[in-house]
Amino acid sequence: MSGKKILIIEDHTDLANILSLNLSDLDYIVKHADDGLKGLNYLENETFDLVILDLMLPGMDGIEICRRIRNQNIYTPVLMLTSKSSELDRVLGLEIGADDYVTKPFSVREVMARIKALFRRIEAFSITNNINGKDKNNVILGDLEVDIDTHNVSVAGRSVDLTAREFDLLHHFINRPGRVYSRAQLLDIVWGYGHEGYEHTVNSHINRLRAKIENDPANPEYILTIWGVGYKFNDSLSM
């Protein structure tokens, strides 16, 4: 049995039941909340491996739930479900900390594939940390200090608050200093699934990350732009 625990926050009972049945067939432990406030309460008081979060909910919408749990440093992966087709809603969900999204109507097979992709990404991060020896509690690069376990980040002793996605980007970069990644590669690796046409989301995350960790974001010391290619973490900084 996988033992992974998944919370579905979805007010459409039939859809929630279909997802629960298919997830149970894959040996996941499933819990369901039919409104936003109940779902938020579960997330604040229990530990889950994944939350499947509808955007439109009674009580509290999915965007607000995602924003609140990320502000509380709850890093549970979020797969957002939305019936909205506007680009703004999808990008907003990703930028406030959702890990992936599926637009309704969707096939259950697609949702299962997205879930498996998210878990593969999480497991790959864990394996890479162990192989590279980056599982030490603290990584120090220049004035930048990153606690991998607690997600605490500081610069020259000053605490920096990162969103879950900003931390994932930083975490990926510090594990592979010097390696250059295109926006499409970062979107696929860090978000866990390709989102064609949304490479600008990577730019906005990197800009916000630089604003928080760089002394001079216009002349970055840590995350460097390789013009015409992508980004890399400065490999001249010693651990």
Q: Can you tell me the overall shape?
A: elongated
Strand order of the largest sheet: 2-1-3-4-5
Low-confidence stretches: 127-135
Largest sheet: 5 strands, parallel
Name the assembly state: single chain
Overall number of structural domains: 2
CATH fold name of the largest domain: Rossmann fold
Ends distance = 39 Å
Proportion of helical residues: 40-55%
Approximately how much beta-strand content do the residues carry? 15-25%
Average predicted local confidence, pLDDT: 83
Based on helices, strands and strand pairing, what is the structural class?
alpha/beta
Number of strands: 11
Which architecture of the largest domain per CATH? 3-Layer(aba) Sandwich
H and E order: EHEHEHEHEHEEEEHHHEE
CATH class of the largest domain: Alpha Beta
Q: List the total number of helices.
A: 8
Give the CATH superfamily of the largest domain.
Answer: Response regulator
* Rg over C-alpha atoms, rounded to the nearest angstrom: 18 Å
Structure description:
The chain has 239 residues and is of the alpha/beta class. It folds into two domains: 5-125, Rossmann fold, CATH 3.40.50; 133-233, Winged helix-like DNA-binding domain superfamily/Winged helix DNA-binding domain (Arc Repressor Mutant, subunit A, Orthogonal Bundle). It is 43% helix and 19% strand. It is built from eight helices and eleven strands. The strands form three sheets. The protein has a five-stranded parallel sheet with strand order 2-1-3-4-5, with helices on both faces. Strand 7 and strand 8 form a beta hairpin. Helix 6 packs across helix 8. The model is unreliable at 127-135 (pLDDT under 50).
